[in-house]
Design brief:
50% of the residues lie in helices and 9% in strands. The protein is built from 43 helices and 20 strands.
């Protein structure tokens, strides 16, 4: 938002003889004989029925206090009424307006200690933070107390929408603001009901300021959050005097006033500045003296206000009537609804409703002539300790658009810059004077409140730093002087004083460093952390999901794309050192380091410690923990736990790359009692199997398959498994076990742990796309490693089709890149499996694979002899000479190796190098074992070589239906015995175990023929049978139909072609065109089509 610039010139003005506020008489203590009014019925009902529903996290209570005494003396009389049926109505209204103006001018500043004879009352609403009820010591933190003062003609409830918007945009404030108080002026809102018949023709704005001061001096409790009676008890005069002189002990008061309320609030702050920490003025009626005459001459519509409509049959009729007015149509709908609900009251039996504040009293308030100018003149004297913020109207403030507004623009500039220090202003572009009523969501209260919080902390940090610097300069052994006795020496003798030990000093330094680091965190990040913490504490699952999936990633991109998030110890004060939240925060913190940065050895060790803390909390608490997390986060916890284990295992297996510090830390860890448990296979598997056992997820899935009812399933799941948190953690642990066993190379056990999980679109893992994709990837790879290529192809086709259909939705996911990378790897694995076991299961997936890996597929599909061997199958196989043509075998094996190493998981070894034995470690480094990926590739290529000549044999068999064995052996240049062996290899290669109709577990299956070619050998004849597979034309027709539609749309959108001649000179009449002479046809020249060239109009 923009602001008003400081004016270059100051306009001279004639000083006003301002008078100070009249002293406030000590309130009379409440006694049993006191005559105390009850709450208005509507206010009492609202307090009982909606106390905790109005502002989330806060509880409403309504209270009554006496107005300040004495008050400006005036004659009291019943409020006059002006019936529409009265023929002299207009004249009476004008007369009443003039009497108000003259009464205020004549009776200014007249006080009588015995007046009024009957007390006036002020009704206040209090919103107290719910957390204070259970955190009685939190008040010592000096939280914020906000006090709101309304404008003329309004009511205290008009602020509620602005307060809701403030908390909606800043959760940090919700955790810092402890109380909110809203006051009704004596002739407004609920106060006007209690004071009916006792109000006069004068409303002195200074009395309104005195009412605010009396509330703060005598009735605002010392401690926020305490239970209070309807009628607040006053404090002693001595305590009140201490407040005025030194301020509050446990509160930082931020006062907000609009229009009338802004002027009165500022006057109160001028009179008793120690009571205020900050003052926020929302377009206040504070005017330079040179505008006083215009103000008094009729700038305020007294007559129109006196005669305004105040009665309606019902509230709905009132709302419809107000909406017909251009004045009220500009209001926010919720604020207008609050005006109808709370600014009006029942007028009596069968009398409909009326405004609580009569037009006469509203006009009496408008008649104030002096205070706006007095406050303007006194602004430079406002205590420099108070932060002052102006929120001003920005409507029609461009004098170029409206020259008549130049004076108003100048007035705003000179007003907001009247006080030069600790001041700021914001211009609400396009809004008029009624900012809280028209744009409550844009009311800019947040910056000054956050500035107040941060400035207090910064002051504290500066003091801490100064102390720490002083200590650092003089050294650890310098004693702290006895300041009560004047220093280190007394009468020439050295005093013995206590010394700071080194541990205390280091702790102090760490504390100060943490506070400084906290101050450097951007405010938006602090607000997010507090909001995230509050959502977790409240188990607000939608809010947690929004923070986790959107807020965290958005702020990461904005502030921490290449740096660490703040450490948990730094942000701990923001979340009240909540241990559970800090564990979850560290989980995200280390995940960010592993994914965006390079973890160091400390990160690897500490991430394991945090994982242990998290799982110990979940598994070893007394009963299930009361924690709600979204499924996506639960999956990510398991997935990241395994990824960090995998990353550590790979890092640990390369001792040659370690520095001395890393080697010493790993050696120390290896020498611990019982051996190192740091990211060991045993500890990881123990966590996963413990979660499975604790949640009884296998029993739950069995019950689901058997069709048990929900009640029966909960009984089967037990105490832990009946909770969604444990159920989903157990479920995701099964998939985590699948991944771990694949990484360790035990593919049979990997599929075995999935016995109770069905691969279909109704499975739990489909709730989380990343889990869905990972499950199919590891199951598909396990099938491929077990030579069940047909099952692997079916698995990859299923998930790749899913990713293709849902790609447009994945682009909005923060895990889109990871999903996309996994899809590319699965296309590579599909290409390998399809070359080894050709299938026409899905042509679209096959075409996609060919688009990505056409060169590799071509090389893998060509036949080669099995006599080829390579020394190191894991390296790309290249010819020895650039001129030497690569052999089919080298090209095929190189293609298989390339795709396998690209697409396979990052296998790990279960055993760590011998870091605890220097000699053994040196031998290990000298002769390192084979890499796990190399071992798996070697086994895979051995199978490829065994079936190397099968494609050649297959190509010959496809040419015949029957063939003499000797003739076939001649084709292959083999004897008959070698031919029989080769044909048995082909027979074995065309047989595989495969699941039938997805029945049974993932390991179950039947032996099937995977080739479209079969043969039998009868005596010396080979009989060949080839099965014909029906081609699926659905996809072909869809693709070509879409292509035809695109061509048609392009032609339809193109302009009509016109000939060159018509473009240049128009179209000649038919009869006037000269017949074109036929050109001689030439032969022997290629046709170029130039004779049919046309140009399109542009």
């Amino acid at each position: 938002m923009s602001s008003y610039a400081e004016p270059e010139l100051e306009v001279p003005y004639k000083s006003i003889n301002s008078t100070p506020l009249h002293p406030i008489k000590l309130p009379t203590p409440i006694s049993p004989s006191s005559r105390l009014p009850p709450l208005p019925p509507a206010a009492a009902r609202r307090q009982d029925q909606e106390a905790s529903k109005i502002i989330p996290g806060y509880i409403l209570s309504t209270h009554i206090i006496p107005a300040a005494l004495p008050r400006t003396k005036c004659q009291t009389a019943p409020t006059p009424t002006f019936a529409f049926s009265d023929t002299h109505r207009k004249a009476k209204i004008v007369a009443a307006a003039e009497s108000l103006r003259s009464a205020r001018a004549v009776g200014s500043e007249v006080y009588d200690n015995d007046w009024p004879s009957e007390p006036l009352w002020v009704v206040v609403n209090r919103f107290t933070a719910e957390r204070l009820a259970s955190q009685t010591d939190s008040i010592i933190r000096n939280g914020i107390t906000m006090i709101f003062m309304h404008a003329n003609g309004f009511h205290k409830e008009t602020w509620e929408e602005s307060i809701k918007a403030l908390f909606l945009h800043s959760i940090l404030l919700e955790n810092t603001i402890e109380e909110i108080w809203l006051l009704d002026a004596v002739n407004h809102g609920d106060s006007a009901i209690l004071n009916e018949g006792k109000l006069g023709a004068i409303f002195n704005w200074k009395d309104n300021s005195r009412d605010l001061l009396q509330f703060m001096q005598y009735f605002l409790p010392d401690l926020p959050g305490s239970r209070l009676p309807v009628h607040l008890n006053s404090i002693s005069d001595e305590i009140s005097r201490k407040r005025v002189e030194g301020g509050f002990t446990h509160r930082r008061v931020v006062a907000v006033g609009h229009s009338l309320g802004g002027c009165c609030t500022c006057m109160a702050a001028l009179h008793a500045p120690k009571l205020f920490s900050d003052v926020i003025l929302v377009d206040p009626v504070i005017l330079p003296p040179y505008q006083r005459e215009a103000f008094e001459a009729g700038a305020l519509p007294l007559a129109a206000t006196v005669g305004r409509r105040v009665n309606w049959p019902t509230r709905e009729d009132a709302l419809k009537s107000l909406l017909q007015s251009t004045f009220f149509r500009k209001w926010d709908s919720k604020v207008l609804r609050a005006y109808v609900d709370y600014a009006m009251t029942e007028a009596g039996p069968d009398a409909g409703i009326r405004l609580k504040t009569s037009g006469y009293q509203e006009a009496a308030t408008f008649a104030e002539p002096s205070l706006p100018g007095e406050v303007w003149e006194l602004l430079p004297t406002l205590d420099d300790r108070i932060e002052l913020r102006w929120i001003m109207s920005g409507k029609a403030d461009d004098p170029d658009d409206d020259p008549a507004m130049a004076d108003r623009l100048w007035q705003r500039q000179t007003t907001v810059w009247r006080r030069k220090t600790r001041v700021s202003n914001v211009k609400m572009k396009g809004s008029g004077h009624l900012i809280p009523q028209t744009v409550p969501n844009a009311l800019d209260l947040e910056p000054i409140l956050l500035q107040d919080i941060m400035s207090q902390r910064a002051t504290y940090y500066e003091e801490e730093l100064d102390d720490a610097d002083d200590l650092a300069e003089v050294g650890l052994n310098l004693a702290i002087g006895n300041y009560g006795q004047g220093g280190l020496y007394d009468d020439g003798r050295l005093l013995l004083v206590p010394r700071i030990d080194e541990a205390t000093f280091i702790a102090m330094q760490q504390h100060v460093a943490q506070q400084v680091a906290l101050a450097q965190i951007p405010d938006v990040v602090k607000r997010f952390i507090v909001q995230f913490h509050q959502a977790i504490v409240n188990n607000n699952l939608p809010e947690i999901t929004a923070c986790y999936e959107n807020g965290w990633n958005r702020l990461t991109e904005q502030f921490y794309p290449k740096t660490e998030w703040p450490e948990a110890e730094v942000i701990a004060p923001l979340v009240n050192d909540n241990a559970v939240f800090l564990i979850l925060y560290r989980e995200l913190y280390y995940r960010h380091i592993y994914s965006r940065l390079t973890p160091n050895v400390d990160d690897r060790f500490h991430s394991y410690e945090n994982s242990c803390e998290l799982f110990n909390y979940l598994l070893n608490s007394d009963g299930p923990v009361a924690l709600a997390l979204p499924d996506q986060w639960l999956w990510d916890i398991i997935d990241e736990f395994i990824y960090q284990f995998q990353s550590f295992s790979v890092w640990r297996s390369k001792p040659k790359l370690k520095n001395e510090d890393e080697l010493s830390m790993l050696a120390a860890e290896a020498e611990t009692a019982g051996g190192s448990q740091l990211w060991s296979c045993y500890s990881v598997l123990n966590v996963l199997y413990s979660l499975v056992q604790k949640s009884r997820i296998n029993e739950y899935l069995n019950g689901t398959r058997q069709g048990l009812s929900e009640v029966e399933l909960l009984e089967v799941a037990g105490e832990y498994g009946s909770k969604p948190l444990y159920r989903m953690l157990g479920y995701f642990s099964l998939i985590g076990l699948l991944r771990v066993h694949v990484l360790l190379g035990d593919f049979t056990l990997a599929l075995k742990v999935m016995d109770n999980i069905e691969l279909n679109q109704k499975a739990f893992f489909t709730r989380v796309t990343a889990c869905h994709v990972a499950t199919y990837y590891y199951v598909g790879f396990s099938y491929m490693a077990l030579r069940r290529y047909n099952d692997a192809i079916r698995t990859f086709v299923s998930i790749l089709n899913f990713i293709g259909r849902m790609r447009q939705y994945h682009t909005r996911s923060y895990q889109y890149d990871q999903i996309n990378k996994t899809a590319e790897r699965m296309y590579a694995l599909f290409a390998i499996c399809n070359c080894l076991s050709p299938s026409k299961l899905d042509e679209q997936i096959l075409n996609n694979a060919k688009e990505r890996y056409s060169d590799q597929i071509s090389k893998m599909s060509q036949p080669f002899t099995s006599t080829y061997s390579a020394a190191n199958p894991t390296t790309p196989i290249t010819p020895s000479s650039p001129k030497e043509k690569p052999s089919p075998a080298s090209e095929a094996l190189a293609a298989y190796s390339e795709l396998f190493l690209f697409a396979c998981p990052k296998f790990i070894t279960a055993n760590a190098p011998p870091y605890g034995d220097a000699d053994a470690l040196a031998a290990y480094i000298a002769e390192p074992p084979e890499e796990p990926a190399s071992r798996h590739l070697s086994l895979f290529l051995d199978d490829i070589r065994a079936r190397a000549e099968v494609p050649t044999l297959r190509s010959y068999l496809k040419l015949y239906t029957s063939l003499d064995a000797s003739k076939l052996a001649g084709f292959l240049e083999k004897d008959e015995e070698e031919l029989v062996q080769l044909m048995m290899v082909m027979k074995a290669a065309s047989r595989s175990i495969s699941r039938m109709n997805n029945e049974g577990t993932l390991l179950d299956g039947q032996v099937i023929t995977t080739s479209d070619l079969d043969f039998v050998i009868n005596e010396n004849m080979v009989h060949v049978v080839e099965s014909v597979m029906n081609r699926k034309y659905g996809g072909w027709f869809i693709r070509n139909t879409e292509h035809a539609q695109r061509v048609y749309d392009a032609l339809k959108a193109s302009p009509l072609p016109i000939t060159k001649g018509s473009k240049e000179g128009g179209t000649a009449p038919e009869e006037s065109r000269a017949p074109a002479e036929p050109k001689a046809r030439t032969t022997g020249q290629p046709w170029t089509g130039t004779g049919r060239r046309v140009e399109f109009a542009t």
